[in-house]
Amino acid sequence: MPHFIDLGVNVDHVATLRQARRGQEPDPIIAAALAEQGGADGITFHLREDRRHISDRDVELFVKTVQVRTNFELACAADVLAICCRVQPDWALLVPESREEVTTEGGLDVAGDTGRIADAIQTLKDAGIATSLFLDPEPNQIEAAANLKVDAVELHTGPYALAKGAAVEHELGRLADTGKMIRDAGMRLHAGHGLNYVNVRPVAAIEGMAELNIGHSIVSRSVMVGMREAVAEMRRLLDSVTIAAG
Ligand SMILES: CC(=O)[C@@H](O)[C@H](O)COP(=O)(O)O
Ligand SMILES: NCC(=O)COP(=O)(O)O
């Protein structure tokens, strides 16, 4: 059966460019509108504790202006959690954060959770926000997520994106195996991190893949061809996988 994959466009790094001069442009709000015109099914944004790119102002405006799904990425930090519950995005994706990291390095350790993640999930649920966890493709993590009854798991595709040679198939296998666990547990299967125009199709072809969240590669392409076209190119790639799946 063909499956139609939602494309979530992460506009964090439009804000990275803006923050390089601490100015007003480029504006991620405008980028999000152009991404929608290019075919985005959702807009993803990560309000980090250090506010290195997306700002509180951006988040307030996204939820007022984005016409497709809003996906608010955050760590289990009380202040950001409170902002998320107040602005009411459609989705919240809990991710790990450390100040020293260049970008997200691994998935949440929900299997080793001492209650902090569970409490954050309940807070989000009480606020009526759909919940997703950013996890490594590890069976114990998926089992722990299923026990917490989250709406989706976003598999961390970073190791796949960095893999070379035979390791690529191994990483794809990990994603497919844990992807089946996620679907069997009744959760939506999402994936993201490090996906680009070259490596995306095998991940998109994983059975039951419902959504891919892609940011850095689309923003990078948009510097050359514009955001609308960069998103449209990625949209065409994902649709070609659906057609091939027939
Ligand atoms: C969880 C993930 O892979 C990204 O959505 C996250 O936003 C990466 O952090 P930066 O956007 O700060 O690189
Ligand atoms: N959750 C992954 C995401 O939103 C985008 O990650 P990347 O494509 O910027 O690596």
What does this protein structure show overall?
Its EC number is 2.6.99.2. It is found in: Cytoplasm. Keywords: Cytoplasm, Pyridoxine biosynthesis, Transferase. Catalyzes the complicated ring closure reaction between the two acyclic compounds 1-deoxy-D-xylulose-5-phosphate (DXP) and 3-amino-2-oxopropyl phosphate (1-amino-acetone-3-phosphate or AAP) to form pyridoxine 5'-phosphate (PNP) and inorganic phosphate. This protein is an alpha/beta fold. The chain has a single domain, classed as Alpha-Beta Barrel (TIM Barrel). The chain has 11 helices and 8 strands. The chain has an 8-stranded parallel beta barrel with strand order 1-2-3-4-5-6-7-8, surrounded by 8 helices. α3 links the parallel β2 (about 40-45) and β3. The radius of gyration is 17 Å and the shape is globular. The structure holds 1-deoxy-D-xylulose-5-phosphate (DXP) and the ligand NCC(=O)COP(=O)(O)O. 1-deoxy-D-xylulose-5-phosphate binds near residues 46, 73, 95 and 134.
